C-alpha cells in the first residue's frame, strides 16, 4: 500500500487520486462535521443524489455557523438567507466554498457567488456545479 506522501505525490503529478485517497480527502475536508454529513458526502461521490447534497450542505453550515445562530439550522428553508438569517460572514462563506471545492471536486470563482444569498440558491449552485455545468 502506498504511503500518504506517495499518494499525495501521485495526485500532484497525475491529477488523479485513488478511491481510498479521495475518501480520506473528503473525511479530512469534513472534519468536525457530523457522521451523517460525512456518510452523505461519501455516498454522493458514487450517486450524485441531490438528497445527499442537501445533507452535506446543512452539515457544513452547522459546522461553520457562528454559535449564536446554530439553533437557526433547525428551521431553515430554501429561502433562509445565509448572511442575514444564519449570520454567515464572508470568512464563513469562504470556508463553506473551500469545503465544497474539496468535497465535490469543483472549482468556484468569486464572481460565481454573487447570486448565492439563500440556502436554496446555494443548493442550486452546487447542483449545477457538481453536474458539470455553470451555475
Structure description:
- The structure is a single chain.
- The chain has 135 residues and is mainly α.
- It has one domain: ACP-like (Non-ribosomal Peptide Synthetase Peptidyl Carrier Protein, Chain A, Orthogonal Bundle).
- The protein has 6 helices and no strands.
- The protein has helices at residues 4-14, 19-29, 35-47, 50-64, 90-104, 119-130.
- Helix 3 (35-47) packs antiparallel against helix 4, helix 4 (50-64) packs antiparallel against helix 5 (90-104) and helix 4 (50-64) packs across helix 6 (119-130).
- The longest helix has 15 residues, at 50-64.
- The chain is globular.
- The N and C termini lie far apart (39 Å).
- Mean pLDDT is 85; it is low at 1-14.
Q: In summary, what is this structure?
A:
With 135 residues, the chain is mainly α. It contains six helices and no strands.
Number of domains: 1
- What's the helix-strand series? HHHHHH
CATH fold field value: Non-ribosomal Peptide Synthetase Peptidyl Carrier Protein, Chain A
Overall structural class, as computed from helix and strand content, comes to: mainly alpha
CATH architecture: Orthogonal Bundle
Number of DSSP helical runs: 6
Unreliably modeled segments = 1-14
